[in-house]
User: Fold these one by one.
Assistant:
Number 1:
Amino acid sequence: MSADYYPTFALDDIANLHESAQVEFKLAGGRDGNGTLPEGMWESYSAFANTLGGEIILGIKEQQGDFTIEGIVNPMPMLSEIWQILQNPQKISHNILAPTDVQIIEIMSKKLIRIHVPCVDVKLRPIYVGTDPYSGTYFRVGDADMHASREQVEQMSLKAGIDLKLKQLKQ
């Protein structure tokens, strides 16, 4: 299996859409309905990066376990915001995405944003939200993003060869 291989799934089969260990849907509609990045998206980014990798699909609504494709009216500003956040170490510890990992896709004449988050090498973990690895590290369990415990963060850091206490003293 090549390093670029990752499982795919069919988004056009609406009746069978569901979240899983490697798929997360977010509405991203915003108050005005034109689209905004959901805060919880970054927890999923951290969780996928620290676990098996996965796909975040923006523009899909969940209601009582059923998913519908709502789309994003104007996805371009959201794409710009994604890249700005990924380049800001105050928001995300590392940008692990390549330009091809973030795409606008169209299904049933509706635009969605598909973000492929690769599983990162243990030497880069933990990937976390914000500036504190202890409060911002997540991992994926089933279809949920779970907050990593202090011990789990320290185990990831040890495997990566990072001394978090020393790193925090420098900040």
Note: The beta strands are 23-26, 54-58, 60-63, 66-69, 102-107, 110-117, 138-141, 144-147.
Number 2:
Amino acid sequence: MAPQRTALVTGATSGIGLEVARELVNRGYRVIGSGRNPERLADDERLPGVEYVALDLADRDSIHACTTAIGDVDIVVHNAGESQSGPVEELPDEAVDRLFQTNVFGPVQLTQRLLPHMRGQGYGRVVTVGSMLASFPLAHRGSYCAAKAALKGFALSARQELSPFGVWVSHVEPGSIATGIGTRRTHYIAEGSPYQADYDTMITHLDANEQSGISPATVAKTIVKAIEADPPREFYAVGSNAPLVFALRRLVPRSVVTSLVARRHGLKR
């Protein structure tokens, strides 16, 4: 009989992370779900079968405390992150620093602490959750696009290092997802900004695209597919007509794709 695997799902209190945790519990995994303040969850917000742990990826001490508390895990799903928007010229230094610590450095530091066990036992799964904006950048989303692209780079490089030890890293790039993240996105735009009209147009279209996007449960199924495949693929894209748009990117000039992405968000480029 195969051993019960333990999975850590970051950002498991809402959206994609919540649905991944639900799916894994239903499949018989031991699931540890992280959140910045899990103690504040009401009873009806807690998934039965999930063990909750505090983790703030923007705080390196929190990462250390979390990994010390949970011990060895076999699977980690890096879902937690910040969605940030703002003109490049007006992004505060501290906001960009926090975004990269939360979305890139935090997942890398967390993975580093979990890898010795996975490598030692000859089995492990690391799934990073990115965004199709890393492949199709958008105006006023520069910091977020860059962070997700960096996360993908770490993931695909680490896969080459770790696969000989039975530890497989996969990167999942969702398109527009109806998670309600638009209400939690951080905005940085100065009062009287010359970018205001352009920014407002982009945000309005971005929010509308997300509201009509695929469900978090659909993304969760793709993530679980990556966990259970043997071996998993290195890259999965889901939502926003992914097969079509990635094929289009290979067939037409980059400038055409850039223009199409802008127009989808109400911008003329």
Note: The chain has one domain: 6-264.
Number 3:
Amino acid sequence: MKPFKNKLAVTIVVLSVAFLGIIIFSLKSNSSVISSGVGSVISPLQKIIYNANDKLKESFDFFINFSKVKQENEELAAKNAELENKLVEYNRMKDENTTLREMFDYSQANQNYNYLGCNIVGYSGGNISNGYVIDKGTNDGVKKDMIVITPQGLVGKVTKSESSYSIVQTILNENIAVASMVESTRETTGILQGATDNKNKNLAVLSNIPIDSEIKEGDVILTSGLGGMYPKEIRIGEVVSVEIDTVGIMKKAVVKPYVDFNKLEGLFVVVPKEEINIGE
């Protein structure tokens, strides 16, 4: 039995050495084969681990980016609000500059008066025709019956003046009568008063127009200066229609004022440079 055991041992040793040699030879000559075999076993596990890490990274990146985007949006919203405020301020200053420039041009053409700027701080009654409260009064040189205008045209006149405020009634009020004339015909017989139509439009009516007058739609109506109350040739409005009055001996015209009474903010009180009696 000993020789057999020795032969078996020798055989095992020889085979082991041969097998080891084959392995070493394979590693040197074609290591990719072994790598491929090992990789085929390890690859599924690597994929699972890689995918899990990738998902975790994506979630982490999402929260990081979300916070960053949120912060950027908040910064952009703040900048946008700031720009909108600047735009509002710019438009306000632009409108003020336009008004002041127009008033300067008007004052250069009418140098017998000073023009006192004032702001509307309230309403005298339930609607526009009842008048405005302005922030200038007798302390500023404002007196009853002084005329109030904007660069667009005639607003009305001061009907009451206290130390720090005054009441201005507009040409839309039926109690305000303005001696007027038609620019195209130079007729100076018209009297303009406020009127209310069924559509609540801000209109006035020019009456006492001669029956043979050539007044027509589109004509410009100005102050005539008669009576000394209103300075001459202040723009009032435009004729929108002409008809014969109920008596049948005169004409009357509906006038749309140039001043937009729904958008008034700043006004100018016309102050004579020389003291004159403008009425009580």
Note: The chain is about 40% helix and 30% strand.
